[in-house]
């Protein structure tokens, strides 16, 4: 084995990002690393590249134990990394990027001619015919990825880690990239390939390892594995027995309830294909799909974070304008985004102010919520959602992830919306808080509020949703209602390649 | 043409167009005399703007340079009056001081992670205050060596004078261009301007580079102060108030992105010359008032900033064309 | 609520007290106040009066900085509004017209800045640099390069008159500060401004109209600058387009920073900023009164700024923490300390953005 990892552990305050993970990489192999967001992929990579220090475990490269302390140290050891976007500098030329830090010099000055020649030499064998004197930023993402790979290979040359390299490439570009990767494999490099595109994993990789919740689930030979099993590995299949019992909680009659909202032909190119969706009062709709399938994009469109370019949203009174978040809020929508830190909380404000923020924004600046009222509101939700904080005036940034999530939830509940969108409401939350939030979702729908839940955890969707929409390749491809909602059915719908054997629903 | 040259080309085109307008009205403006004066009158500004260009390329800002120029003039004048050292020795001492001063600001910016804006603002007060403490009067410089420097020029064809300080400015631009575009240090400067995180990933030593950048700016401000003292023949602590902002304006009109990471030292030369040209035109015209200089410079600033904003939007629109690349990049970063 | 406000401004209040004590020690008559012809006079009264322009600017600047912005144009806006006021009086529209037009000019300047920042999306420092450069030319255009003098006693009252014995400029900044502080705290504006300054994205997703709020904040800054311009112009009974408000934007920013408001936006205190302005003015006046040559003024100011900044530095805590953890680790087998120190790992992004 070229690279061996044994029992790798890494924790952050409140969570265990990696828990005793094993991983092997042979020379001349492409090894996929799979898992949903938060499964521990990026933590694993960061431990390998020296961006994080591991808490425990062994890493050996060529039989030698290693412990890189920085990216450049990892590079010197032979481990190069190409991230999705932030690799190189778009404002420097291709040649400058390729030779950065090792520029050929003459009389102490960088020799531009030699630099370009060196860059062209480094790009040989990658099938690129580009002007290395131009800014990297003027080239497509695919070219930039290949340039980044060329640099990483030239600098390290044993292990190449590709972190979501195809996330923003089209099919032709991806094919071009794969040719490059295969060429490098044949030259004897060990390549770790992180991607959430399963087609690509089957297309390119020799073996794969699946992580979930910081643990290794399986390592398998790609050719011997079928799609269904892989998705099960990724999304989990543990509460199968409890599933039916849980299901009793959801109302099978959901679709007979009064209609609340009707989205027709709602879509935006590049985000999500036009879809139809009807929302009923008091119903919980789940959005299932792999990362990048268009789940979050659907939510952002519905909430006006990006304006839809086609279609309409209507309620009983007529058209509902949803071009901006303010319009969506005025229409009685709420949205707890996936990335709490950047999109959810206002870190330096107190719990009380964070809870009151949306309500205050709707009332306008001239009608402040009296402080006593804010405090009452905060106390009520701290109690109701069991937010663990020493007091309501603590800065929300000092709370744990689960409690921050509850604060964002409280912000919207305080608005008493009619339609609430929760994007990964339980991500990065400990198990106890997890169950609580699910319980809350049930509780609040009793008052007639409709909820849309996006989750990577199928168990969770099965437990809460009366209806599940399945997404694939940025389009709504299937709808499962009531008893149809099982792990198997969802997995099948996700796995079905391009509209063949999927159980088609009305949203197809 | 390689698109990275577009802003530089725009700058030069505006300069040429402006010169053409001037020539159309006052044919005499296309003479070596006017050209020579343009270089001489703007020598100190050109030199300090070279240092400012490097700072801005790295994504920083240096507000202290105007004060450092004034300090330099006063320091030289007082030293020559009181110490009896040879001017060259005083020059060396001064450049040492201003370079160390810049380096110290760079170190504070890096070590304490403070905004360059506020650190160099403090530096601005400090340098101006130091100048006041040396003297509050205008101190004339009377030294044979100064007379020598002031009279050193090459008479160009057409009786225009290419003065020593004009040449020094051109050499500074050349030197600055080499540092910025032809050294590893320069590459690190651009890398920092492109994004500190990525620069770090690529192996840039951020602290060392930051100190180097502000030290370079300090050195250039010192040199500019020397040139200014030769130009005016005196040292005055109230001189060159606000020169830092003029220099920043020249850098922006020179096509350098104020957010850092893109630009050319040569462009700054043309930015300085364009501003000088506007002034010369107003002098030639005689009926136009001097405040039009400021208004036109403000408009040029706006034009270039909007131009850059447009270019940026164009590139990022193309880059995010494939899905939500930009959004995910922002999150990944 | 009261104790919270007090504890927030306590450091600034203590600093001011210390500076006043220091000045009084060197110049014993500093705090003497006499009543002459129904007006209070004395060095301390003078500080309160002369500090008016910076204090007024600091009020608006506090709001702008709270949104993570900066307004470099306020000094220039003072010149413009002064010129507008003087021109209006010259045109015979009286003091009322002068004040109204000056305030309108300040609002227009703020609207321009706000649109550049919030609509076009230019960095605040660059956006306001444009008006800073061009504005002085505009002011000179209005005054035609001369010092426009006027003789309107009613308008001059804003600069040199007194109200119940207190100089009018002092009354003006005090009223403005109280008004703005109350407006921010009695309405929800303060909360919304802070929310936008801390996290514009999250605030917008929570329904805060960040764009309008940003424009409003720059307009408030323009309005404060207009008041400062009126005071400065009325004081000398003339509009000096070249020198009115020259470099006062830097003093105003300094006052805000001394007031403990972070340039990274967020939590703010108008009261603390105004105290910062008073601290600066007391130092300025004190150095003169104490018989020091005025040339020490800037060096002392610079030293003070550095001390305050170092105390505020976000990295200081990290370095301190790093040192302590190193001390603690000494007993353990020597770990391969990363060369970059505490910054090697996920580095504070605010520090990076701060460089801009």
UniProtKB/TrEMBL annotation, chain A:
Principal location: membrane
Source domain of life: Bacteria
SMART domains per record: AAA
Membrane topology annotation: Peripheral membrane protein
Protein name listed in UniProt: Sugar ABC transporter ATP-binding protein
Residue stretches making up the ABC transporter domain: 3-238, 256-498
A Pfam family hit: ABC_tran
Keyword Transport: yes
UniProtKB/TrEMBL annotation, chain B:
Main location: membrane
Membrane topology: Multi-pass membrane protein
Transmembrane segments: 6-31, 43-76, 88-109, 116-142, 162-180, 211-232, 238-258, 265-284, 290-307
Cellular component terms (Gene Ontology): plasma membrane
Subcellular location as annotated: Cell membrane
Keywords: Cell membrane, Membrane, Transmembrane, Transmembrane helix
MF annotations from Gene Ontology: transmembrane transporter activity
Name of this chain's protein: Sugar ABC transporter permease YjfF
Organism the protein comes from: Mesobaculum littorinae
Lineage, broadest ranks: Bacteria, Pseudomonadati, Pseudomonadota, Alphaproteobacteria, Rhodobacterales
């Amino acid at each position: 084995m070229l690279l061996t990892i044994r029992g790798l552990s890494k924790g952050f305050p409140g969570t265990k990002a990696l828990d005793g993970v094993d991983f092997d990489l042979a020379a001349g192999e492409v090894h996929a690393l799979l898992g949903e967001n938060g499964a521990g992929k990026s933590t694993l990579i960061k431990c390998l590249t020296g961006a994080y220090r591991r808490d425990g475990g062994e890493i050996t490269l060529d039989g030698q134990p290693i412990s890189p302390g920085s990216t450049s140290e990892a590079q010197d050891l032979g481990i190069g990394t190409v991230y999705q976007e932030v690799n190189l500098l778009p404002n420097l030329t291709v040649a400058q990027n390729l030779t950065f830090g090792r520029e050929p010099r003459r009389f102490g000055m960088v020799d531009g001619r030699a630099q370009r020649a060196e860059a062209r030499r480094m790009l040989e064998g990658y099938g690129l015919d580009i002007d290395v004197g131009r800014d990297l930023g003027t080239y497509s993402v695919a070219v930039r990825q290949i340039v980044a790979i060329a640099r990483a290979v030239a600098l390290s040359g044993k292990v190449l880690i590709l972190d979501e390299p195809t996330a923003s490439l089209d099919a032709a570009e991806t094919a071009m990239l794969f040719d490059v990767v295969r060429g490098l494999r044949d030259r004897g490099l060990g390549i770790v390939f992180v991607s959430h595109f399963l087609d690509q994993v089957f297309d390119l990789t020799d073996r794969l390892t699946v992580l979930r919740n910081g643990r290794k689930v399986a390592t398998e030979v790609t050719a011997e594995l079928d799609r269904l099993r892989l998705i099960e590995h990724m999304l989990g299949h543990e509460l199968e027995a409890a599933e039916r019992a849980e299901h009793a909680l959801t109302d099978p009659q959901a679709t007979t309830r009064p209609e609340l909202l009707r989205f027709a032909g709602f879509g935006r190119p590049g985000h999500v294909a036009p879809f139809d969706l009807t929302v009923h009062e008091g119903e919980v709709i789940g959005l299932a799909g792999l990362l990048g399938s268009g789940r979050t994009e659907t939510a952002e469109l519905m909430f006006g974070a990006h304006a839809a370019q086609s279609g309409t949203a209507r309620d009983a009174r007529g058209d509902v304008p949803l071009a901006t978040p303010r319009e969506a809020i005025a229409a009685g929508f709420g949205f707890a985004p996936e990335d709490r830190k950047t999109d959810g909380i206002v870190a330096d404000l107190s719990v009380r102010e964070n809870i009151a923020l949306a309500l205050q924004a709707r009332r306008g600046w001239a009608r402040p919520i009296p402080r006593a009222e804010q405090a009452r509101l905060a106390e009520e939700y701290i109690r109701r959602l069991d937010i663990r904080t020493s007091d309501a005036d603590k800065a929300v940034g000092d709370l744990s992830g689960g409690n921050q999530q509850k604060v964002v939830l409280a912000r919207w509940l305080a608005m008493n919306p009619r339609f609430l969108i929760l994007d990964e409401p339980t991500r990065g939350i400990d198990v106890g808080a997890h169950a609580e939030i699910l319980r809350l979702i049930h509780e609040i729908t009793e008052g007639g509020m409709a909820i849309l839940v996006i989750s990577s955890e199928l168990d969770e969707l099965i437990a809460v949703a009366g209806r599940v929409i399945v997404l694939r390749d940025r389009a709504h491809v299937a709808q499962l209602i009531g008893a149809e909602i099982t792990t198997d059915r969802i997995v099948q719908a996700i796995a079905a390649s391009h509209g063949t054997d999927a159980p088609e629903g009305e949203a197809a | 043409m390689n698109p990275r040259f577009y802003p530089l080309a725009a700058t030069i085109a505006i300069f040429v167009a402006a010169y053409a307008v001037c020539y159309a009205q006052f044919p005499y403006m296309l003479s070596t005399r006017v050209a020579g004066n343009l270089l001489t009158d703007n020598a100190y500004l050109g030199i300090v703007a070279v240092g400012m260009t490097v700072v801005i390329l790295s994504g920083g800002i240096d507000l202290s340079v105007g004060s450092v120029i004034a300090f330099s003039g006063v320091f030289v004048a007082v030293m020559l009056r009181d110490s009896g050292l040879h001017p060259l020795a005083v020059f060396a001492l001064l450049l040492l001081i201003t370079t160390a001063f810049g380096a110290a600001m760079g170190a504070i910016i890096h070590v304490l992670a403070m905004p360059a804006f506020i650190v160099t603002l403090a530096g601005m007060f400090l340098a101006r205050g130091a100048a006041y403490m040396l003297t509050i009067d205008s101190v004339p410089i009377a030294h044979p060596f100064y007379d020598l420097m002031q009279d050193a020029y090459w008479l160009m064809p057409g009786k225009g004078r290419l003065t020593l300080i004009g040449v020094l400015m051109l050499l500074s631009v050349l030197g600055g261009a080499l540092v910025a575009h032809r050294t590893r240090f320069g590459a690190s400067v651009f890398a920092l301007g492109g994004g500190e995180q990525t620069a770090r990933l690529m192996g840039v030593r951020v602290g060392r580079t930051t100190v180097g950048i502000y030290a370079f700016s300090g050195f250039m401000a010192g040199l500019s102060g020397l040139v200014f003292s030769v130009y005016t023949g005196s040292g005055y602590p109230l001189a060159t108030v606000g020169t830092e902002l003029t220099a920043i304006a020249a850098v922006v009109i020179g096509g350098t992105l104020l957010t850092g990471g893109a630009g050319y030292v040569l462009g700054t030369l043309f930015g300085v010359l364009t501003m000088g040209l506007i002034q010369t035109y107003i002098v030639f015209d005689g009926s136009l008032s001097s405040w039009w200089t400021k208004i036109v410079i403000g408009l040029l600033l706006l034009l270039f900033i909007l131009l850059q904003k447009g270019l940026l939007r164009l590139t990022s629109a193309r880059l995010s064309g494939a899905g939500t690349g930009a959004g995910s990049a922002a999150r990944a970063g | 609520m009261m104790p919270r406000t007090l504890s927030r401004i306590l450091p600034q209040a203590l600093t001011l007290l210390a500076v006043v004590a220091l000045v009084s020690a060197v110049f014993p008559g500093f705090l003497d106040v006499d009543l002459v012809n129904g007006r209070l006079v004395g060095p301390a009264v003078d500080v309160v009066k002369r500090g008016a322009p910076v204090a007024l600017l600091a009020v608006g600047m506090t709001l702008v900085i709270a949104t993570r912005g900066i307004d470099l144009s306020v000094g220039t806006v003072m010149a413009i509004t002064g010129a507008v006021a003087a021109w209006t009086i010259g045109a015979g529209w009286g003091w009322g017209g002068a004040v109204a037009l000056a305030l309108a000019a300040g609002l227009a300047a703020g609207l321009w800045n706000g649109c550049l920042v919030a609509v076009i999306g230019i960095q605040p420092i660059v956006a306001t640099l444009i008006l800073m450069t061009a504005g002085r030319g505009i002011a000179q255009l209005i005054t035609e390069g001369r010092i426009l003098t006027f003789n309107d006693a009613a308008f001059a009252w804003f600069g040199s008159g007194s109200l119940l014995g207190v100089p009018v400029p002092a009354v003006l900044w005090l009223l403005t500060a109280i008004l703005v502080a109350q407006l921010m705290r009695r309405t929800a504006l303060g909360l919304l401004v802070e929310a936008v300054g801390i996290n514009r994205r999250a605030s917008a997703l929570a329904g805060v109209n960040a764009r309008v709020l940003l424009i409003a904040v720059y307009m408030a800054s323009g309005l404060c600058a207009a008041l400062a311009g009126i005071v400065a112009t009325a004081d000398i009974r003339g509009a000096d387009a070249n020198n009115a408000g020259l470099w006062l934007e830097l003093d105003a920013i300094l006052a805000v920073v001394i007031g403990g408001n972070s340039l990274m936006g967020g939590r703010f205190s108008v009261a603390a900023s105004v105290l910062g302005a008073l601290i600066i003015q007391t130092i300025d006046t004190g150095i003169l009164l104490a018989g020091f040559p005025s040339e020490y003024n800037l060096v002392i100011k610079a030293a003070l700024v550095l001390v305050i900044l170092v105390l505020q530095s976000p990295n200081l805590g990290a370095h301190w923490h790093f040192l302590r953890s190193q001390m603690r680790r000494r007993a353990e087998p020597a770990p391969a300390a990363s060369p970059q120190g505490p910054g090697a790992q996920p580095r504070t992004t605010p520090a990076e953005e701060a460089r801009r």
